[in-house]
Amino acid sequence: MVKTKTKVNPEIGMSGKRGEKVRSDCHIEIELTKRNGVIIELNSKVNTLYGEVIKDLILQVCSFFEIKNAKIKIEDSGALPFTLAARFEAAYKQINFDDNREFLLPFNRKNYYKTQKDRLRRSRLYLPGKEPKFFPNAGLHKPDGIILDLEDSVAPSEKLAARYLVRNALRSVDFYGAERMVRINQLPMGLEDLRFVVPHNVHVILIPKCESADTVKQVEEEINIIRAEKNFSSEIYFMPIIESAAGVLKAYEIATASDNVCALTIGLEDYTADIGVERTNDGKESFYARSAIITAAKAAGVQAIDSVFSDVDDFEGLRKSVIEAKSLGFEGKGCIHPRQIKVVHEAFAPTEKEIEKAKKIVVAFKEAEKKKLGVVSLGSKMVDAPVVKRAQKIIDLALMYNLLEKNWEEKLQ
Amino acid sequence: MKLVKNALGRLVPIVVNGKKQIPFKGIGKYVPRGKKASPPISSCANYPNDGNKVVKNLKEALIKCGLKDGMTISTHHHLRNGDIVTNMLFDVIHSMGIKNIRWFPSASFPCHEHLIKYLEDGTIHHIEGSMNGPLGEFTSKGKMKGVGVLRSHGGRYQAVQDGEVHIDIAVIAAPTSDSFGNANGVHGKSACGGLGFALVDSQYADKVIIVTDNLVPFPCVPWQIQGNNVDYVVQVESLGDPSKIVSGTTEITRSPDRLLIAEYIAEFMNAAGIIKNGFSFQAGAGGTSLAFIPFLKEKMKAKGVKARFVRGGSTKYLVEMLEEGLTDFILDGQTFDLDGVRSMRDNSNHVMTSPFTSYNYHGKGNFASIVDAAILGATEVDINFNANVVTHSDGLLLHGIGGWQNCLFSKCTILAVPSFRDRIPVIVDEVTTLCGPGELIDVVITERGIAINPRRKDLLTAVKKSSLPIRSLKEIQKEVNEICGGKPSKPKVDKNKIVAIVKWVDGTVLDSIYKIA
Question: What is the ipTM of this complex?
Fold first, then answer.
C-alpha cells in the first residue's frame, strides 16, 4: 500500500466546516489532554433535538479510540451522524496518524444491494466527497449511478477528511438503488483511497487519468489484496476515465485490461486541456477522441459513457448534447446537478422510429427461431445477432420508459 | 394562569392579558353572537373644509389623536423588512414618555428588532400580531411583559371587526397619499403594491394617521385607503428601504430537492384532476411555491387550460401567467416584487384584495374556500396532519401565521415541505405548536414522497394509477428518523409560563406557546 504523507499536528486535530452559511456539517476540534476526562463543548443548531445523541456518539468514538482525556469542541450546523463520526475521525487521525483502527457505524441494511456489469448507466451524478450535505437526497433524483468523488472536487487539504466522509456515506446513506460509485484520485494516491471504500459495497471504481492497462491492473491488484484482508467477495467494476491524448490511443488496451471493466468514459475538460483547445458545446475538437473511445469500448464489449455537460442551467443544450452522444454510440452521460438527470434520461429514451424498427427485428428473430431457421431476415435484408441484441435492448428500454406496452407482441397479432 | 383542554386536547388559558378567551371548539363549531364593532361617528365639522389634514409631524398627529398610556396602536407590514415608519413611530411614542402600549401589527419583521428596547422599558406592553425573528425570540425567552397573541391575517380582521381588539390609533404607511388621506401603495418611491392589510385599521380605528413620503395633489387614485376614514396625514422623507420593501429575493429556488417537491406538486395536481379549465390556486412567495409555477404552466399549456384566478402574494411569475393569458385574474393580498407592483398598477385584472374579502371567517363567506388548491409551507407537520408554522422544533417562536390558517379552507390544501431540514425532522409525532388542524390539511408533499390525508379518499382514488410516490406520513417519518439518528427530543419549555397564544380564525384559542427553559 502506498501512503501519502499528511501534515500532522501533534497537539490539536481539527476537521470540518464552520460558519453561518454551513449546513448539515460540523467542525470538530480535538485536543488530547492529560487529565479531567473527555470534556465536550457542543454548540449545535440541533442541540435541543439531538444534543444528547451527539454527545453519546462522540463518547462512543472516544471510547473506541481509547481517548480518555480530551477537550473536544464541536460547532454543529445539523450534521448527520455519519458526518459527525467522519469529522471526528479525520480530526483524531491528524493527531494520531498511525492509528489504523477505523470507527465504523453500522452498515445500513438498505445498502446491501448489488450491481451488474451491463447495468443501465445512462446517468451518473457526481457528488463532491467533501460535501456531506448533498449525500442523503442524491438518490431521490433517481440517477442510475451516484459517484462519490475523491478527486477533482476535493482540494488537497480536504482529501483525508473526504475519505472518511465517503466511507461513512457508503455505509450509512441510502442511495435508493443507484449504482454506488467512487472516483478515486490519480494513482498512486488513488490506491490508498481504495482502502477506505472497497470494503463497503462499492460497485464501481472510476479510475481517473487512465492512460494504460497497467493503471487498471494496479487498481485491480490492490482491490484483490484488500478483498483477501477484509474477506469480502462482491464484484467491483471499473470505469476508467480517458482524459488525455495518450489515453485515447490506448483506449482498447484499457477497456480490455480486466474483465471487470464495465465501461469506458471520457473526461473532456482534461482532454481538451491536454490537446490544447477549448471545449465547445459543438464538440468538434473531441469528436475523434469520443469516437475512438466508443469504438474501443464496443470492441471490448463494454459500455461507452460520455463526459459531463457543464452548464447546469442550459437544459436544452444538455438535451442536444445527449442526443448527439446517443447518435455517436454513447450509452450514458455524467451529471453534475440533479436536475440534469431527468433530461439525460429523457434524451436517452428510444425514439418511436427506433422502437418500431426494433419490434420488427425482434419479431422476425422469434419467427426464425420458431421455424428453426439459421438465418434471420427482415424483408430482403439479413439480420445478424448483434443487431437483434441491440433491438432487444431498445425494446427493454421502451418498456422501462413506458413507451411500449408489456403485451406489445400480443397486440401485433 | 388557568388552563383548559380545548377540542384538540391542547392546554390553553382562559384569560390572557386580562381578557377572557374562548378555547377552540372545533372547526365551524364556534358561532359568534352580537353585533360588529363600530368606530365612533365623526363629523365633517371637525375636519378642515379644504380637505388638508397634513400636520407637521408624527408627534403632533399622535398628540392630536390623544395618545395615552395603555392604548392600542396598529401598524401594517406592507413595507416588510424595509419599514422604518414603525420604528420611527415608537421612537416618538417613547420620547413622549408613553407606556404600556399594545402594539397590533399585521406582521413584524427582523427590522423591528429596534423595538426590543421599548418592550424592555415598558413602552410596549405586548405584541398582538405575527412575530417574526428577533421579536419572536424575545417573546419565547419570556421577556415580554404581556402575553403575545398570534392571529392569521383573516383572524386579525375578525378580531377588530368583532370588537375583540379595539384599535385606538392606526398608523398607515402609504407610499402615495393626498392631503385628504386618500392613499395607495402602487405609486411612489416606496411602492409596495396593495395596502389591503391596513384596510380594517382604517375602517375601525378611533383615529387614523397616514404617513407618506409621496404627497400628491388631490385626488390620489386609486384610493386603496379612503381619506374619509383618515384623521391626519404626515409627510416624511422616507418610508423605508425600497430594496427591502419589495423583497427582490422572490426567486425560484435552485435547490434540486425543493425543485423536486415543486415538480411533485404540479404532477399531483394534474393527477388529482385539479388542473382544468377555470380552476384556481394560491401559492406563496417561498422558493418552492414559486418553483412550482413553471411546472404548473407546462402542464396547463399541454392541456390547453386556463385558470379563472390565482391568489397572490403576487410575484413576476404570477404576473407572467396573467400576461400570457394563463389566468383571467390575480386576486392579490400582498405584492412581493416590482413586477407585481407594476401589474397591480397597470392591469385592471390584477386586483387588490384585503383580509375582509379573502380571509375573514366571520363574514358571509370569503375567497379562501373557493380556491381549488392552496400550496403552503410549514415548520412541522405531525402524523395526524396537524401543522405548525410559528415555532421551530426547538420551541422557539420565529414566524408569524400570515394568511396560512385562512388558506387551509381551500378545496385541496397542500403542504409542501422538505422531509427534514439539516438534522431537523419536519414530520413529527406531535407538532410543537398547533396552528392548523389536520382535518383541513389534505396533502403533504416532500422530496421523499407524497402523503394524502386518509380523510380524502377522493384524492387517494384519483391518484391511484399515477406513478407518484404516494406514501404514508408515518413511512416518511420513519425514514427521516433513521437518517437523522432517531426521534428528536422535545423542546424544553417552562409549562408554567405561557408567552403567547395562537388563535384560530374564529377568535378561539388553538394553542399555547411556552417559555423556552
Answer: 0.91
